[in-house]
């Protein structure tokens, strides 16, 4: 049994990959399944929070009592996130946003040219969604980011925490087998300016519940 103790809290969560079109039939993406973000959304909704789930393209069912906003590219996700951010108390950026997108989207399917064994795709930087939200000067939500690292986890995670102006960052060591992308389980280490806490290996379902509890604790601590 879980109490519906978060009924006065609004939480926006981004989840899944983004899809960056190259031409009408091709795109760039990554291996994010969206499972972690969906588990967090489910855990928050079960405790009665009002949850907006800003989702990239994933193969997951929408959790009960969650309002889902479907997006495709990082630019679309950025727009949806900025629309939601100022009327939510907490923003959790779980999405694996593509850092770059093709500079141009070809309007017709790109053709192979005979005799050419190479092609160059020019990429431009995508907006940093979580940094845009954390940079709001009015109605800024408590902002939580993720960091997938393969080495020096604390150093890189704390670097992102301060550079992106986040309130909390959830780091996972993606070099460990069976964790992170596409897996059903994960282990996280949370860092905030004055402290840290390890959440050991557990199912994403279980971790989603623990994570919501920790985020709510830090959110409330910051209110005071
Ligand atoms: O810098 P890095 O991509 O490792 O940061 C990861 C965090 O930043 C995650 O919370 C991710 O959702 C967020 N992010 C974002 N927009 C981007 C890139 C990352 O919101 N363009």
Automatic annotation (TrEMBL):
Keyword Flavoprotein attached: yes
Cofactor(s) recorded in Swiss-Prot or TrEMBL: FMN; Mg(2+)
GO molecular function: phosphopantothenate--cysteine ligase activity; phosphopantothenoylcysteine decarboxylase activity
Portion held of the full protein: 181 to 404 of 404
Residue ranges, annotated region (Phosphopantothenate--cysteine ligase): 11-224
This protein's name: Coenzyme A biosynthesis bifunctional protein CoaBC
Catalytic activity: (R)-4'-phosphopantothenate + L-cysteine + CTP = N-[(R)-4-phosphopantothenoyl]-L-cysteine + CMP + diphosphate + H(+); N-[(R)-4-phosphopantothenoyl]-L-cysteine + H(+) = (R)-4'-phosphopantetheine + CO2
Keyword field contains Lyase: yes
Keywords from the named record: Decarboxylase, Flavoprotein, FMN, Ligase, Lyase, Magnesium, Metal-binding, Multifunctional enzyme
Cofactor note text: Binds 1 FMN per subunit.
UniProt family annotation: In the N-terminal section; belongs to the HFCD (homo-oligomeric flavin containing Cys decarboxylase) superfamily.
Domain of life of the source: Bacteria
Residues reported to bind CTP: 99, 109, 127-130, 146, 160, 164
EC number: 4.1.1.36, 6.3.2.5
